[in-house]
Design goal:
This protein is mainly alpha-helical and 993 residues long. 61% of the residues lie in helices and 5% in strands. Its cofactor is Mg(2+).
Amino acid sequence: MVEQARGAASPARYGFTDDRAEGQLRAAGWWTDAGPDQSSTGVLIALSRAADPDLALRSLDRIRDVDQAAWPALSKALCEDAALRGRLIAVLGTSSALADFLVSSPGEWRRLAPEECTDSSRYADELLATVLGTGDAPLTGTAAEQALKAGYRGLLLEIAAADLGHVVEPSLDEPSYAEVTGRLTALAEASLAAGLAVAHAELAGKDLDGTRLAIIAMGKCGGRELNYVSDVDVIFVGEGDLQLATSLASTTMRVVGKACFEVDAALRPEGKAGALVRTLDGHTAYYQKWARTWEFQALLKARAVAGDAELGSNYVAMVDEVVWSAAERENFVEDVQQMRRRVEKHVPSELADRELKLGRGGLRDVEFAVQLLQLVHGRADADLRLRSTMDALRALGAGGYVGREDAAELETSYEFLRTVEHRLQLRRLRRTHLFPEASETAELRVLARAIGIRPERGRSADAVLLAEFRRYAQRIRRLHEKLFYRPLLQSVASVPTEALRLTTKQAAQRLTALGYVASDGALQHIRALTSGVSRRASIQHTLLPVILDLLADTPDPDGGLLAYRKVSEALEETPWYLRVLRDEGAVVERLAYLLGTSKLVPELLVRAPEVLQLLGDPDQLAGRDAAEFAKSLRATVRRQPGIKAAVAAARSLRRHELLRVAAADLLGLLDVRAVCEALSSVWVAVLQSALAAAIRQRQAEVDGSPARIAVIGMGRLGGGELGYGSDADVLFVCEANEGADDTQAVRFASSVAETVRQALGQPSADPPLEVDANLRPEGRGGPLVRTLESYRAYYARWGEVWEAQALLRARFVAGDDDLGTRFIDVIDAIRYPEGGLDAVRVREVRRMKARVQTERIPRGTDPTLNTKLGRGGLADVEWTAQLLQLRHAHGVPALRTTATPAALAALAEAGIVDAEDAKSLTETWLLATRVRNATMLVRGKASDQVPGSGRDLVAVARVLGYGDEEDPGEFLDYYRRTTRRAHAVVERVFFAD
């Protein structure tokens, strides 16, 4: 029991871990053999709430040692005065540097009694009194520096105590972030004024009459948001004798730098290489002619704080004129964005996640985003011309430039990181922005307690802090990317309204700067989308600036904006449309890219809007299983009452799938093989469903089914290589059922086949669904449907070499499985002839290829840019592969494939074609297929010709992976180079004997 009592009364109960704690408490008179002294319970509780109880107690013990005479008074004050107790113990438990100051400066603890605390408005008077001295002459040199240092450190102690006190003593008011940074800034301003006074004293022997100097605060000091430990950025403006003004400036920097903080004048014109002091006219000339973008960003916070008030005021007035016109500079937004990226790259990768200031999700992310928005919109809206980041952020939210929720989240996150930064710097009064590593649990625990974070839900304080830090950093980064790289341009979006922020001319200039060619037309689209007071107009009013900026980064901003208007008007009654755009940043970004790149996508989107919701989830957009889709389509169509309804349902699902694939393709989520496979599977599913519906309808009409029917895919459909605009090449084969003859079977099957062709071929706004049976025996002059035996007889007796070549890509795709399988067995002997092709037939194939390529390339076009028939194009590769299949597939089973890339791989594996040659042919085939698909996506209509210039070329190059900063001509060079290399292989291999 005695041991339990001692444990309950142990100093460990109050959070002490140092073995010396009990001895220190006894020495202070706060601990007895029976445990805590009753009169000092409040002190012990306060110590237990300190960020580091051991540090706080150890510091008090040091103060007692150096000033034992004053200790009774201090001890009594700690026991009786809750405010003093909370402030002093909070400081001592958080900052070892301020503890050192209190130990070395006996009696300074009295500053922390509420009645003794200095109001920030008196900081300048107090520091000036410190350096001017009580005698006739002001202090100079080392004496002035030491006096200023002591005065500065005392006031800093007061600020820290007021900032931290509530953590230890909950009854104390918690100052706001703005109050703390405001006091720190006021202290810095007072220090600069005191330093300038010392400079005047040291230069008293010089003739300073007529010499004027103004000190302009920049950065955080200009914005009244200083840290505890920070450089203070300044610019000096002088008039009169500039040499004397420079001496005043340099002396001020020396005195303040040694006593208080480093004074950094590197933001002056020309940086450190420029003159330390310039006249107002000199500054004006520089900013008007030579200043770079980052300098205008820095000048946002310029504020006169010391020296000649009139000169400082004139300087600030001049700055206002140049700053708020800076956004009109060419590439202004890009320059600011690039500067942020450069700053970020300088952060070592191993520290990037811990850098509070410069890292991803750090303070600079907030500041850069806010400043860019200020500079863009502040030209017309004077309410945004604020120096404080927090004030500007609130103004941006109030003005609608940033969503209120986003502004609130950024404000909370920024304040949290600044608080963490303050507590880190207070620890040793060192300039640091590095968050502790996750393994530094002791440091994290002290930091968490200094902020006021306590354990929760079974998690330790350090774990809570780490989770909060990561959460806030991620939130900042997300919002930074949303705002900084897609800044809201409400000034453009609101042009059509009564409350114009920009004139029409200014809005047109802004659109032109963003890359819009027809700015008048763009303004009409904006007016149409934002007119009225409906909820739709309100949301569009918020969305459009984002859309405009995103579209500006696409190959066709004007076409993209028109497409956005059409899509928005078509879907204005769709309840979730604008909500998804407003709430899903990824959807907006991807949609803008699709609309500004492709003419096919918006045409499909207005009739398949549900795909829009997939844009936010790349896995769903690109990961759909082809078999699952085919099953879903067949099941849906099977439930329809007739062929028209069945085809309408099939078209709808095909449209959805076509748009899904197109979007995934444009966004780089599917490679070309996956695209062709997906498009082929769509066509197959549509054919299967339409055939089944037509058979059901015909069976009902004739009361039975006299025939089985199979559909054989040919060409690209057979090879599983369809593009967006490809027809479906097919053969129809039938076989009489028991009790019916071939004539009945063919009549029934022909009716079904014609029904399928007509139903699918009905005019539509979608890419056409044309079923092409021209590869059948005798071509268009032959019967649409033949029996299996008829096909067998025809190919055995009349079949030509081109038909055998066409059959190389034949595969069963729809209808009766057994009949389809037997058809494939029949044609295997035709397309894989025993012994291969004789020399006569080889020459015939070569002549056909030459004739086709000569006759079918459109006149007046560049033959090197024809993806199908051009040099090294699809025909070159496919004819080469097919000729070798005809010659060798009878002896090489691996060549019995309908897919061109698979055939090329098998040819290389069998040693028939050199591996490098096969690789070259495959690369070209994939490139030409991809370019053909991209051209269809960009133009909205099928074309074999690669665009040779203009926006279409830029868009196709972008789809192919060429960035917006790259010359699209490089894409054309690459295409020609690749196809030229493949054509050389074709010439060598195709004509080899």
